[in-house]
Amino acid sequence: MQEPQAETWTTRGLPGRQQFRNFQEVFERTHFHWDLKGDCADKYHGSIVRRHFDDYVFTHIEADPLAGRRTADDIKRGDQPYFCLLYLEAGHSHLAQGANQCELTPGSIALWDSTRPAFFDAKSTLHQFSLLIPHRTAKLALPGIEDLCGMQVRGDRGMGALLKSHLKQLHSTIDSIDARDRPAVLRATVEMAAATFRPTTEALSGTAFRRSLLARVQEYVIANLADPDLGPQTIAAAFRFSPRYLHRLFAEFDMTVCEWIRQRRLGRARVDMETRGLDALSITQIAMKNGFSDSSHFSRSFRAEFGSSPREWRETSRTQS
């Protein structure tokens, strides 16, 4: 692991009317691009510390009241994607992302995603520690993490108390941890955060989270329709939950996993057969292109779904075009 790279900055010593403008510039360099607003008529106090440990980033901010909005245009400016795990040491802040919003108080722990619009509004002096976790690492540890951004856990009970204590110790000691041990410590931190934010079985039942999770599973299925091995086992493995849970997730919304996959594959195959640019492909090739491993099974399924054979459908669409 590389030696940490640290950047420390403060408004102290700067002319009063330049303090907030300089703080904005450093904040954007260390915490992504935001449209920031603060009470900066005469002076503004702010300090920022940023440390890199390979793909992870630790930050510490102390600042006067501050609000920020991160828009789609800000996101397009090309920052590396991170999930931010923040711990509020002091102050009060409103955080919103997607359908979620929360009121952060001292001891609160929250998540937000650098690849989606977000908003925060700290009405009082802010004292915040953050750990920026690479997107892929966080997604592997907690599938569906996107749906938890903009939410918080309390740091005074259960796993929240354990995570808060760990984060405070981590920020104060990470520099002194042997470079050979840091990867294991950071992995353990991500796993602890995942366990803390992972919804309970009760919370997953019949909630907006389950509907949102279903949408993400369906997006995954659509992106992998061409894979003939796509099925409940592989999908469940990709999201790190059991096939039984996957079936329950679909059943809650009056669907079955296999039927939903079959309908998407047939629909895509039908579009392919109606597309002039794919005339050179045989029906068998179109079937294989869309994840069917047996052309006879494809033909039977197509007729059952659309009332005619694939060949008849293709000929009819050519006649009508």
UniProtKB/TrEMBL annotation:
PANTHER family per the UniProt record, alphabetical: ARAC SUBFAMILY (PTHR46796:SF6), HTH-TYPE TRANSCRIPTIONAL ACTIVATOR RHAS-RELATED (PTHR46796)
The protein's name in its UniProt record: AraC family transcriptional regulator
UniProt cross-references to Pfam families, sorted A to Z: AraC_binding_2, HTH_18
Record-linked SUPFAM superfamilies: Homeodomain-like
InterPro entries: AraC-bd_2 (IPR035418), AraC_XylS_family_regulators (IPR050204), Homeodomain-like_sf (IPR009057), HTH_AraC (IPR018060), HTH_AraC-typ_CS (IPR018062), Tscrpt_reg_AraC-type_HTH (IPR020449)
GO molecular function: DNA-binding transcription factor activity; sequence-specific DNA binding
Positions of the HTH araC/xylS-type domain: 215-316
Key word Transcription regulation present: yes
Species, as recorded: Croceicoccus mobilis
Keyword annotations from UniProtKB, A to Z: DNA-binding, Transcription, Transcription regulation
Record field: transmembrane: none
